[in-house]
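Researcher: I'd like a candidate sequence for this fold, 866 residues long. If you have to choose between options at a position, lean toward the conservative one.
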């Protein structure tokens, strides 16, 4: 049996359907190779609802007039087409969502070779359904299919004779790499500082983004393609454009492109519809050849797309490529962390949204995209009503504040929002913690105007949602006059000489939220669990009802070099007469994330597994948000629900949610039945201020082995009042790294070395072997128990009082004996291997005369300090 394109027997699997049927059908419809976009040239897009989102791209997309007009999804012959309808439908809708007034993707074709269904986008039932043999000359359904999908049905094709430039969408790793190279080029060519280089690069990347935005605005569907050819005469940010303009002016990127942009912005500032991005009268202060070098590196990249992931973080990427997060005093929020926060916010199209420490605008950009997407999906609105609604969201509903001055992150956030469709006129470069926005004697006239504008808005009690990641490190000190004025405004700071800004932000947001308003904030886990912050948690409960706590992985902020364990906390502002009560407060949703944020690594190079980790992080965002919404709807999973009474003392997920009741082979008894903390006395207790003899430090590694460290004089080389000698066979636990497996048995060769109070030293009780206890202490089960009992947000500490009651298993005599025998055999083998290795090296050294006295003299006399 045969049709126009293939024999029935040619269709055995999905690949056969793609090549033997679908591709031939597309070519028969009259599409050229340039007009056919195969899967490899298409971008994966996130499709589906929150909680069931996935990445997808179809097998083919067909372009006419520069726009994708229909897509084709091929399946294996045995697949039922009805089961695969959603993916091409949602992909087509995602492309159309990028357009404001038209929907260029009109159809999607779903085929398994034996059956073919043609759908109009937006309709749930196929317009045409053809069987295998209906693909025949003269068949009326095939004729109707041809008329619907041939290029002429979508208007005049784009000319193929114009000179083009290939634009490709880079990965995040590629963006970071090219930005770093641009920075090095600017630094080496113009000999300017990192901060100055950043300022000049921002101007150039602004022009690049404006150029790409012009392409995107003309052809929004390009965001669904990984690369494409575009008429070069429509791309201003290119070497070709520069060469053409240099006949008229020496530095056209500055004198034409940048000054045109500056003039437009100054006009809008005068009309009070825009805030300043760059200083008045500014120029690109780089040599023309430096600018050409940057353009050369960037012109082939396309930096705009449907997803805000890439272009929303461009400035953050350049900051991280040129300056360390700690040097900036900022920790930028990983993209999947931002997406999780926005999902937890469950934004409505009429919400007022605030980020009072907005950085470069990550939360604001995703909030804008999320709210616009909801407007786009509202089919009850006309096209013009959608445009008006989206303009109101951009210009009136999204607010940002940031106090950073060098670099001025508020200006960068304004620029970032401007490039994403928001005027940025609601982003203020002020200290948001000053509820009065008071003028300072050192303020410039422009700063005074900005503060007056902010005061005149009267924003207290106006916001529905706050999405934020407060700065980790900034602290206000009462000894500073300006800080003292701000501290007086906060109950949190009452009676304290200094307070971390991140604590006061929670009280500040209470000032700006409506009753019932939602605060979604990243929070340091130390504030959720630490004894020093119990008063803060009590005050937080008086202000808010705790709705949810979502634990983030320990490495979520690795890219910013932040060694802080964090969570998201979701709070709801209490009404004026509402009070906190563990008996009356509702249950709390708690969720432990394993991947969110970990897909944003510190390193710049792509590594195998990065794509999988990104997929896992995106899926986890959907899962966490979906579970939270089910909880809010009254049908949540009990395993993620914690009674308010259980979260009275602490709010961290590991303490409140995880209730382990595991069993293991062997006897179970408290850990204290098997080991006893060592009592140090005599020579084993070193009184540092009085000790004149050198001692050598003992350390425990993550792999469970011990090693000698440097030799010190206790009287002068340590801040500890006491040090403690460890002896052969004792168990030594690192208090700050026990959860990583840093537990060791002291070997004979390290007998007498010393440790500080940062270690717990234990002796095995009679009848128990230290090596067996060591192995069990390093097991996943016991380390998990350690972690559940730790406090702190950075390097979590364990104390003997925390772990002594852990249910601890010990093997029977036969299992114990077998383990000890294997360990002794392994140790003998290691000793033998070490001796043989030393002998082999010595033999080679002697044979080649590699131990001459002169070499030893050189090494001793001239080696650099460690």
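Model: Candidate sequence:
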């Amino acid at each position: 049996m045969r049709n126009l394109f293939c024999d029935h027997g040619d269709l055995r699997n999905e690949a056969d359907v793609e090549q033997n049927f679908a591709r031939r059908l597309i070519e028969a419809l009259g599409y050229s190779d340039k007009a056919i976009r195969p899967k490899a040239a298409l971008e994966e897009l996130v499709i589906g609802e929150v909680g069931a989102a996935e990445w997808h791209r179809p097998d083919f997309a067909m372009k006419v007039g520069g726009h994708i007009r229909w897509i084709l999804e091929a399946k294996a012959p045995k697949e039922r087409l009805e089961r695969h309808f959603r993916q091409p439908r949602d992909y087509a809708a995602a492309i159309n969502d990028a357009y404001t007034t038209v929907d260029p993707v009109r159809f999607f074709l779903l085929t398994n070779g034996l059956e073919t269904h043609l759908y109009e986008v937006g309709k749930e039932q196929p317009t045409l359904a053809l069987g295998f043999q209906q693909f025949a000359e003269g068949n009326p359904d095939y004729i109707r299919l041809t008329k619907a999908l041939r290029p002429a049905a979508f208007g005049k094709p784009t000319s193929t004779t114009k000179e083009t430039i290939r634009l490709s969408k880079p990965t995040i790793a590629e963006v970071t790499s090219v930005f770093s190279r641009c920075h090095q080029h600017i630094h080496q060519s113009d000999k300017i500082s990192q901060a100055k280089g950043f300022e000049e690069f921002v101007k150039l990347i602004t022009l690049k983004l404006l150029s790409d935005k012009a392409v995107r605005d003309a052809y929004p569907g390009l965001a669904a393609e990984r690369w494409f050819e575009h008429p070069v005469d429509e791309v201003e940010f290119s070497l070709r454009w520069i060469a053409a303009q240099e006949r008229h002016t020496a530095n056209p990127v500055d004198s034409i492109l940048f000054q045109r942009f500056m003039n437009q912005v100054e006009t809008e500032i005068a009309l009070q519809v825009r805030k300043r991005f760059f200083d008045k009268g500014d120029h690109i202060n780089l040599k023309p050849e430096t600018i050409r070098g940057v353009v050369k590196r960037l012109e082939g990249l396309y930096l705009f797309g449907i997803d805000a992931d890439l272009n929303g973080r461009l400035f953050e990427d350049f900051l991280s490529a040129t300056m360390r997060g700690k040097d900036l005093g900022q920790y930028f929020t990983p993209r999947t962390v931002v997406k999780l926060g926005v999902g937890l916010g469950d934004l409505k199209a009429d919400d007022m949204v605030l980020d009072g420490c907005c950085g470069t605008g990550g939360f604001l950009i995703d909030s804008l995209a999320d709210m616009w997407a909801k407007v786009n999906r509202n089919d009850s609105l006309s096209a013009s009503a959608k445009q008006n609604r989206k303009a109101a969201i951009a210009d009136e509903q999204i607010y940002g504040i940031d106090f950073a001055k060098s670099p001025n992150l508020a200006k960068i956030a304004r620029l970032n929002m401007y490039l994403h469709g928001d005027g940025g006129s609601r982003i203020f470069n002020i200290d948001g913690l000053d509820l009065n926005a008071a003028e300072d004697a050192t303020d410039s006239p422009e700063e005074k105007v900005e503060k007056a504008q902010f005061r005149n808005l009267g924003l207290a009690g106006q916001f529905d949602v706050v999405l934020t990641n407060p700065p980790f490190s900034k602290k206000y000190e009462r000894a500073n006059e300006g800080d003292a004025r701000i501290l007086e405004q906060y109950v949190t700071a009452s009676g304290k000489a200094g307070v971390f800004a991140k604590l006061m932000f929670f009280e500040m947001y209470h000032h700006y939220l409506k009753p019932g308003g939602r605060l979604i904030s990243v929070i340091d886990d130390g504030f959720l669990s630490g004894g020093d912050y119990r008063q803060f948690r009590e005050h937080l409960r008086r202000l808010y009802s705790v709705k949810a706590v979502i634990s983030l992985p320990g490495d979520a902020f690795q890219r910013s070099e932040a060694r802080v364990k964090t969570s998201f906390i979701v709070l709801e502002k209490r009404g004026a007469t509402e009070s906190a009560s563990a008996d009356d407060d509702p249950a709390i949703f708690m969720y432990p994330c394993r991947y969110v944020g970990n897909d944003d690594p510190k390193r710049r190079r792509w590594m195998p597994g990065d794509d999988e980790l990104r997929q896992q992080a995106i899926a986890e965002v959907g899962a966490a948000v979906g579970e939270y919404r089910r909880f809010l709807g009254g049908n949540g999973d009990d395993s993620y629900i914690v009674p308010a009474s259980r979260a009275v003392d602490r709010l961290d997920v590991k303490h409140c949610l995880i209730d382990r009741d595991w069993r293991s082979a062997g006897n179970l008894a408290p850990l204290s039945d098997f080991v006893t903390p060592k009592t140090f006395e005599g020579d084993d207790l070193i009184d540092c201020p009085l000790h004149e003899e050198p001692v050598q430090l003992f350390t425990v590694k993550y792999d469970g082995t011990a090693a000698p460290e440097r030799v010190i004089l206790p009287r002068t080389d340590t801040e500890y009042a006491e040090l403690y000698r460890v002896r052969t066979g004792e168990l030594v636990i690192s208090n700050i790294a026990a959860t990583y497996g840093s537990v060791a048995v002291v070997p004979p060769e390290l007998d007498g070395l010393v440790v500080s109070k940062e270690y717990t030293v234990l002796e095995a009780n009679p009848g128990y072997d230290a090596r067996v206890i060591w192995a069990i202490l390093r097991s996943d089960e016991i380390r998990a128990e350690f972690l559940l009992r730790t406090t702190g947000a950075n390097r979590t500490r364990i104390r003997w009082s925390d772990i002594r009651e852990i249910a601890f298993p010990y093997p029977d005599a036969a299992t114990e004996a077998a383990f000890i025998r294997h360990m002794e055999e392994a140790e003998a083998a290691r000793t033998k291997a070490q001796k043989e290795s030393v002998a082999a090296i010595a033999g080679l050294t002697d044979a080649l005369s590699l131990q001459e006295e002169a070499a030893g003299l050189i090494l001793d006399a001239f080696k650099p300090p460690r």
